[in-house]
């Protein structure tokens, strides 16, 4: 098992660019860098949500479908601070 890591909103703020973009949603950190091009809502909103520190409200406000939720779980992420394998 990889060593557990904990991330905070301020860690996410170090990853807010097209080349390196993380989102904090519902307490989990998602690396959406490779997803930016594929997001149906466009990359700009993801970059803005990333830069806001916590993207939970933005994600919820859109009223994403259940398939979006499933897609989110398939994206590289850190669950409760445990890094996924890249
Ligand atoms: C990893 C996180 C996310 C995933 C997997 C995701 C996925 C999707 C998917 C599949 C859609 C198509 C509609 C649907 O199925 O609901 C969508 C639409 C959209 N998303 Fe996201 N999304 C994510 C995060 C966000 C965030 C943080 C925002 C910030 C506001 C956002 C804004 C939008 C908008 C505005 C649309 C509507 C596009 C349109 O219909 O014109 N999404 N997203």
Account of the protein in words:
With 86 residues, the chain is of the alpha+beta class. 34% of the residues lie in helices and 16% in strands. The chain has a single domain (9-78), classed as Flavocytochrome B2, Chain A, domain 1 (Roll). It has four helices and four strands. Strands 1-2-3-4 form a four-stranded antiparallel beta sheet. The longest helix is centred in the middle third of the chain and has 9 residues, at 43-51. It binds protoporphyrin IX containing FE (HEM). The site of protoporphyrin IX containing FE has 20 residues, from helix 2, helix 3 and helix 4. Protoporphyrin IX containing FE binds next to helix 2, helix 3 and helix 4. Keywords: Heme, Iron, Metal-binding. This is Cytochrome b5. Residues 4-84 form the Cytochrome b5 heme-binding domain. It holds the Pfam family Cyt-b5.
Features:
Cyt_B5_heme-BS; 86 residues; Flavocytochrome B2, Chain A, domain 1; alpha+beta; binds protoporphyrin IX containing FE
| N-to-C span | 14 Å
- Domains, number: 1
The secondary-structure element order is HEEEHHHE
Judged by helices, strands and strand pairing, the structural class is: alpha+beta
- Helix tally equals 4
Percent in helix? 25-40%
Examine the coordinates and then state which fold CATH places here, giving the name of the CATH topology.
Flavocytochrome B2, Chain A, domain 1
- Ligand set: protoporphyrin IX containing FE
Largest sheet: 4 strands, antiparallel
Backbone CA Rg: 12 Å
Strand arrangement, major sheet: 1-2-3-4
Per CATH, the class reads Alpha Beta
Mean pLDDT equals: 84
């Amino acid at each position: 098992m990889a060593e557990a890591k904990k991330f905070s909103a301020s860690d996410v703020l170090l990853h807010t660019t097209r080349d390196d973009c993380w989102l904090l949603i519902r307490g989990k950190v998602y690396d959406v860098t490779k997803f930016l091009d594929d997001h149906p809502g466009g990359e700009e909103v993801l970059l803005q949500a990333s830069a806001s520190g916590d993207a939970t409200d933005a994600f919820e406000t859109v009223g994403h479908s259940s398939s979006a939720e499933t897609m989110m779980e398939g994206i590289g992420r850190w669950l409760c601070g445990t890094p996924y394998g890249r």
